[in-house]
Structure formats: C-alpha cells, structure tokens
Write a structure and sequence with these properties.
With 343 residues, the protein is α/β, with parallel strands linked by helices. The chain folds into 2 domains: 2-103, Copper Amine Oxidase, Chain A, domain 1 (2-Layer Sandwich); 124-341, 3-Layer(aba) Sandwich (Aminopeptidase), CATH 3.40.630. Helices cover 39% and strands 21% of the residues. It has 11 helices and 14 strands. It has helices at 2-15, 34-40, 98-103, 146-163, 180-190, 221-224, 227-240, 246-276, 294-297, 314-320, 323-341, and strands spanning 32-33, 44-47, 53-58, 61-66, 71-74, 77-80, 86-88, 91-94, 124-129, 167-170, 194-201, 211-215, 283-290, 303-310. The strands form 3 sheets. Strands 10-9-11-14-12-13 form a 6-stranded mixed β-sheet, sandwiched between helices. Mean pLDDT is 85; it is low at 1-8 and 17-29.
C-alpha cells in the first residue's frame, strides 16, 4: 500500500513537470531545516533517499513531498510552496511558507493564539461537531458529507484552543451518532463557559453562500418548560448544591436566560468580525441570524451555532473540501472565542 501510494505521488508530480528531473542542490542552504520544524510541532517524518520522497504524519494525517519539488500532497489536496524542498548534505530544507501552507492545513496548530488570561471568562468550552454516524447532515453531489467536514473543523478548533490553555470537551470526536438531547446533557454536566456548534449549510438556490453565526435571542413560554431544558437546569442546580425549589428554579432560569442572550450575541458578533478579516472567507449579509435550534435552545450557557458555508454552492463546496480552508475556519472561530474570553 505504501509503495503504491508513493508511486501514485511520483506520477502526479511527473504530470506537473517535476518527475524525472535531477535534484538541483543549492550552493547555500535555502529556507529552514525540516527536522527543526517537525520537531517543534511534534510531526513525525521520514525521508527515502532512493525515491527522494518525504513522508510526514500528524495525528493520523499523512502528507507527502518530494525533494526538488515545490508540490506537497495532503491527502488528495495539492499545495504549491514558494520554493522546492532542497537537500544539503543530510539536511532537508523547506521554504518559509511551509508552516502556513502545509502544517496549518495538515492539522498542526501553528496559529499562535495568545494564552487565555487567568481573569478570563472562558476556561472550559464545549465544541459540538454536528451530525455524525448515521446522520450524514448536508450532502453534496461529490459525495462529501457535512458530518465529516464539521468533525475536521471541530478537531482543528480543539487543538487551537487547547494550545491557548482552554479545556475543550467534544460532544463527539469520532464518526458516532450523538442525539440532540445528549449533546445538551454533555454541556449541562461539563461546567463549561461556552457552547459552540459547528455545521455546514445548504440551500436550493445554489448561488447562496457565506458563513453565518446563529444564536437564541429569547425563550418562548414553551421553551422555558421544555422537558430537556428543565432536566438540564436540574443538573445545573445539583452541581451548585442548591435545593430545587420552584422559586429558585425561576430565579435561575431568568438569570441564565438574560446572561445567555447577551453573551451569545457578543460571541456571535466577534466570530463574524474575525471572519470578515480572513482573506477568502465570505460572510453572508451581516453574518448574524436568530434561531431556535435544539442544541442552542436547550443549553444554559452562552451558545452559538456556526454555519461555516454552503455545501450547495459550487465555489464554497470546493473551499470546504480543502484542509487549508477548514483550518481557516477553525482559526476564525478560535480567534472569536479568544476575543470573547479576554475582553
């Protein structure tokens, strides 16, 4: 399998004018040593002196590069660097844009978020990757499923936030089906400060595109007495060691609702602000929408649901299947959360 994979990679490079050419060694080392970069980010790598192929592995993700070529393969995604990989004696050098173009979409947290401050309002966050298992979510004609895209974005987001010092609880980190009530129960038992749900959008009008962030503005009478919400409130009260009296329940409900509405809106606006500053990311309209989604409605803490783009839109579909773009999305949400945390 490895042999066939290497042959396939070499054939791809040959089609792009790289195969069969002699490796030109520079008189002076150009770029940065690959071993230093990989050691810094705990990326496992090996080089085959016969085929000149470099194999890199990080958390199960495989990347391939060829000494003498500027093309790097991440899965089926081709990344072109500003200069080819070069070898001087026994050291392989990569260009300066290697970290941003290869390691970031490869899943390595290189964004360099500032650590969360001790006075921060956020120390624990629940990241909810939508759908999973038998629930595919939105599907594209290409065969790409929402459940796979959002899980990848969620994992990248987890890495960024954990590196910044925030504890992350995932509602799922594998391709498993987790019911909507279960997701809110996880949030209620977590002691978390924020709940962020990651999704991909779809529309019959294939011209519609852009990132959107949803939050709950207010609870209706039915919402307040929704069975799942009442169960989550009781869980919260028990965690405080408080008596579950009707009066206390009412006070807690009012306080939590008021706080949740204001803080959810603030988080939504900060994520949208970061999205507008990210090159190549489209925000739809003002980027903010009100919703009554189950997981947003039945969580007690500030909660948002991020629709990262429209899989039904051709241009956005092509972006969403790219590891580089999914890393951008994770960076956007992470920066929005850190803006909120350290305000």
């Amino acid at each position: 399998m490895i042999f066939r994979s290497v042959i396939y990679f070499l054939m791809l490079l040959a089609l792009h004018g790289c195969g069969g050419r002699p490796v030109v060694l520079p008189t002076q080392p150009v770029g940065i040593p690959l071993d230093e970069v990989c050691n810094r980010y705990h990326v496992t790598w090996q080089w085959d002196g016969v085929t000149q192929v470099v194999l890199m592995e990080y958390r199960g993700n495989i990347s391939k590069a060829l000494v003498g070529s500027a093309t790097v393969l991440i899965g089926q995604q081709q990344i072109v660097l500003s200069a080819p990989l070069r070898r001087e004696n026994s050291t392989i050098y990569v260009p300066e844009d290697f970290e941003a173009k290869v390691l970031a979409p490869f899943g390595v947290p290189v964004a360099g978020l500032s650590p969360v401050e001790s006075s921060s309002r956020v120390h624990v966050i629940v990241i909810d990757a939508g759908h999973g298992g038998k629930d595919l979510g939105t599907m594209a004609s290409s065969g790409m499923n929402e459940k796979d895209i959002v899980l990848d974005v969620a994992k990248r987001l987890r890495g960024l936030l954990e590196d910044a010092g925030i504890k992350v609880i995932m509602t799922r980190d594998t391709d498993d089906f987790i019911s909507l009530p279960e997701r809110t129960i996880i949030a209620a038992r977590s002691g978390a400060d924020l709940f962020v749900s990651i999704h991909v959008n779809s529309n019959r009008d294939h011209t519609v595109n852009g990132l959107l962030v949803y939050y709950l503005e207010s609870l209706g009478r039915k919402d307040v007495y929704e069975e799942q919400r009442k169960e989550n409130e009781q869980t919260f009260l028990q965690s405080l060691g408080a008596n579950d009296t009707p009066t206390l329940q009412s006070i807690v409900t009012d306080m939590m609702n008021t706080l949740k509405t204001a803080q959810s809106q603030k988080l939504a606006k900060l994520i949208v602000r970061e999205a507008r500053e990210e090159e190549g990311v489209k925000v739809r309209g003002d980027g903010i929408r009100l919703c009554r989604f189950f997981v947003v409605r039945n969580t007690l803490i500030p909660a948002v649901l991020v629709e990262t783009g429209f899989l039904s839109n051709h241009q956005e579909h092509n972006k969403l299947v790219s590891p580089l773009y999914r890393q951008k999305l994770a960076d956007i949400v992470a920066r929005g959360v850190m803006d909120y945390a350290n305000e």
